[in-house]
Amino acid sequence: METNATTETINQVMEEAWNAFHIYRNQSLKQRADLMRQIAIEIENLGDLLLQTAMAETNLPEARLRVERTRTIFQLTSYAAHCESGQWLDARIDTGDANRVPAKPDIRKMLVPLGPVVVFGASNFPFAYSTAGGDTACALAAGCPVIVKAHPAHPKTSALVASAIINAVASQGLPKGVFAHVHGASSAVGEALIKHPHTKAVGFTGSFAGGKQLFDWGNQRKEPIPVFAEMGSVNPVFLLPEKLKLSSIEIAQQLAASITLSVGQFCTNPGIMIGIKGEALDIFLNELSELIKKTIPAPMLHEGIHKNYLEKRAKALSGTLVSIKAVADIEAGSNEGIPTIATCSAKTFLENPLLQEEVFGPYSLLVCCDNADEMTMIANNLSGQLTATVMATENDVTLHSTLIEQVKNICGRFIFNGVPTGVEVCLSMQHGGPFPASTDSRFTSVGADGIRRFARPIAFQNWPDTLLPDELKQSNPLNIWRTVNNEPGRS
Amino acid sequence: METNATTETINQVMEEAWNAFHIYRNQSLKQRADLMRQIAIEIENLGDLLLQTAMAETNLPEARLRVERTRTIFQLTSYAAHCESGQWLDARIDTGDANRVPAKPDIRKMLVPLGPVVVFGASNFPFAYSTAGGDTACALAAGCPVIVKAHPAHPKTSALVASAIINAVASQGLPKGVFAHVHGASSAVGEALIKHPHTKAVGFTGSFAGGKQLFDWGNQRKEPIPVFAEMGSVNPVFLLPEKLKLSSIEIAQQLAASITLSVGQFCTNPGIMIGIKGEALDIFLNELSELIKKTIPAPMLHEGIHKNYLEKRAKALSGTLVSIKAVADIEAGSNEGIPTIATCSAKTFLENPLLQEEVFGPYSLLVCCDNADEMTMIANNLSGQLTATVMATENDVTLHSTLIEQVKNICGRFIFNGVPTGVEVCLSMQHGGPFPASTDSRFTSVGADGIRRFARPIAFQNWPDTLLPDELKQSNPLNIWRTVNNEPGRS
Predict the structure, then answer these.
(1) Is A230 annotated in the active site?
(2) What is the complex's ipTM, to 2 decimals?
(3) What pTM, to 2 d.p., does this model score?
(4) What domains are defined for chain A?
(5) Cβ of B252: how many Cβ atoms within 10 Å?
């Protein structure tokens, strides 16, 4: 068991981060990108030891962890490339005009880092959303030192990855305060980190209860700070009638795989499906049920997640008029998640807000509506979501435009004939949605746009060219995209 | 005296805004821009009546109000142009690849509106930061209905401008819920508006106490919402030694004008000046004092502001070892602000946090340092600022790089050899700084980038081209700037 960081340690770590900030924020985009690429190399250098350590701590299979390691390295290197491109700086220049009355000043704006960022990793992504995950990569790209609080479910994995980052920081000749790693199974450690005056932003991926607590702590400070918490979702899937009739079997197969992928332990797991009663829905449900029955239960990430799954599942199933439609034929062993499909009517769903809560694991609820109006009522009733999916023909979309518009209004990512699991790492990705999916729907935690969470604009007024940062100099020495007198370009 | 909006009225207004949102958010960029341009026309059509009403309510002179009206109209029309350009949508496209394993989805992202925005105007800008001011223009551009709570210091002006907006909404054939205007001298009205579930964001310009209260209400909701509050600043001006020696008289003239402009009633008023003791500072202070003595006191915006000025000024002057250096020779009449310069040592300033508080009015404090190190200590000690200014030669900047970096780190706009008053309306403007200057330093309330406060990204995954919004269609029918496969352009 790792020791909780003491107040003394936290104060020291934050002091070092603050001092390092004043050096690191002036590192060029290339220097920041070099650090990120070096971290990727150091993580690769950890080799099989890293995989074995994570396997032992998380119950995740090796193949999955290999893919996640590749993803983590891709995040670091692709965000590094984006960092270096300077696009994210939103550089804007309005040139002055001395002849105007009053004289028009020369103003040039770009993003600068906020300061030390505290990162809370996720238990379900020991690499990609943990120690050297998306939040850390974004904060380092933005020019912010990072303090990671290790997830207590995989402290050894976290410490190994931290050692890779620490090596990279040293090999780039940067002050050690650029990165720190602390342990803290107790919530007091998280609270102390967030409430420390040198902390300027927070990144978090995890449960609603956890994320909301950090958000509140961040806002209750004397100097409130932005807390970006990605808190999961039920990721509704709307089954539109024409499409369902055409492809009920195929959709059932897609969803069965998505619901049970990684024992359902994804924040994009499709937790609610909504369809209209009838023959097509029956065929769909039967196929889905058969596939779920055949699913082999597998161990969950850790005891806490498993206990939570059992409790949340039992709570959902205890709802009046909610019935189990299918569970895995093979009995679940200790710590294993039971693949489960439940059903209820639209009326039942609308009357019981508890059924909207995420059941983190291989569970999904099919809401059976009497008609399309009930589907729209459900869409109107749903809270904010990371993703929403429609299974539809183009004709379905045209015929149900009100429903489609409503669904669009509650989600961060809107999927057409696909499944919500699988979050592509690219600039166009949005991972974050209206509350309670995340604490600020205006930002994303996946994709290089996530860098902007940790940066703020500063406008330089009437500075001589020689004293401006390279990003804003008249000659554009870094050759970055800038908007000059309202026109984007590289000139 | 206007009647406070009742709970019933507020509920009705918010219901209408919510219904209008679902229509207005689907208006094209051009339609939104047309509305904004029509509002500008309707405001112009109000003619002299608007100026006279504002003069009677605010004590601001006609010339100033004419300039402010022009600025307001420029905001509406220039933000309309930016809205129509689509640049602010941050459209990003990553095209799919069916051959990749697993298949790479097609993902396309753009900003969409948050929902109804409640706007609280400023008393010191009855046009430009009030009813049809920057926040309203940004929200309408983003696609959000707006509910303005009239400032109780200029309710008739606000109602007149509201009538112009209401006319414009009607003439564009939009539902009336796109804009609403309510009165509320009581804070209960503001609280009810912010806590209404249909409210999705808030814009505010005013005092720290007011803005912080709205921010807290927004965060305490079951569904927290972003509250962008611009809460003023002391806008420190650092007088570097070589420059001060060269231009002490000129700088004194610039600052005297800036401190007393509009009776000091600007959030960018230079409230603190920092210099190093010596002959140059003496010459500067003498000149500044002479100019302040000659300033003719003028009426402040309203009784509340005047009372507040007297109180805050008295509180600052009551500090141990703070002394008055100059006040206007002509005695101030009732409701008039007394132009005042006070001085203190760096030690006194550092020991008394009260001296950092904004004294809203024609007041400024000169902090006299023993040396450059004390100047840097003051910079380290200052909280977040809308602006910071350095009066410096290039040599000064090179010699005092630590000070310059520290100042840069606490401000939203960084001015070189100028004055902070005068906020240019352009894309490169940043008006918002680290807390407590504003509640979220990542956004601006002046310039078209302010639109982004009220919009969030949505990613469309694998949608057929015909069903995508025009902004994201493959052929780019709106000819907007988009980043396609990481490369910005218009293709």
Answers:
(1) yes
(2) 0.98
(3) 0.97
(4) 7-231+441-484 (3.40.605.10), 237-416 (3.40.309.10)
(5) 23
